[in-house]
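To close the section, here is one more complete example, presented without commentary so you can practise reading it yourself. The ligand is zinc ion.
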Amino acid sequence: MDEQSSSCNFHYEYIKNYYRLTSSQTNLHGHKVYNCPHCQRGFGSEELLNSHLDLGCLAVEGQSISLPKKGSTIQFENFNNKFKAPYVIYGDFESLNTKRETWSCKLSKEVKPEDKTKPYQKHIPCGYKILVVGDKKNVIAEHLYRGEDCMEMFVLKLNEFQQMIIDKLKVNVDINMTIQDNEAFKNAYKCYICDNVKGGFDYTSKCLCKVRDHDHSNGKYLGAAHSECNLKRNNKNVKIPVFFHNLKGYDAHHIISNAHLLGKKKY
Ligand SMILES: [Zn+2]
Ligand SMILES: [Zn+2]
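Output:
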């Protein structure tokens, strides 16, 4: 924009350099940024912007589709996910249906159309039960509670159980191999975790060499595995599934309305 044109009182202004205009408005570092004229995404160089336009800008082309190469295949790789979660939490809430004082529709003779959509009951949680179950269907801990403060108590207990499970997962009992286990390990030619999808055992490779996998909670030998598969199947990646009775339809409401009590921790 030159001085001559800026002094004129026109509705339109001539933009001499689009990238200079947009980069002065969008970045504070003073570098020239190449903004896409369609979606305004900024690029550090003209080449990057051109490759963005060649691929098809989302604002113009819609979603860009990239298909896999002809003949290529995909396969399941998260072998860690096929194992049972070591601990599961089950829960259920109970509520009281209380009348709302403000609603007087039933008492009045005249029912206005807007009255029909007024809430006349309030569901207040009054108790819950939580059950922590191990992978052998054994109940590790349970808690039944009734009271007005049941939601606060529920959050406290859930945190407590989470810590308890974390402490249990930290236990590492040394491997205890029987004669049969040693024999089975010696003869094993297949990784029991990936079924040799990654290839057979190979002692020259750091990832594919044969190692003994064991249950860290009791030291029991589980099977021969690739070193990489064995390392991935660790307790650091364990998630604790929590199942609630009718969560989608009902109980989620209580939890969401008290979600702020869950604190800074991530769940
Ligand atoms: Zn774009
Ligand atoms: Zn494997």
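Once you have examined the tokens, check your reading against these statements. DSSP finds eight helices and eight strands in the chain. The beta strands are 34-35, 42-43, 87-99, 121-134, 139-146, 210-214, 221-226, 242-244.
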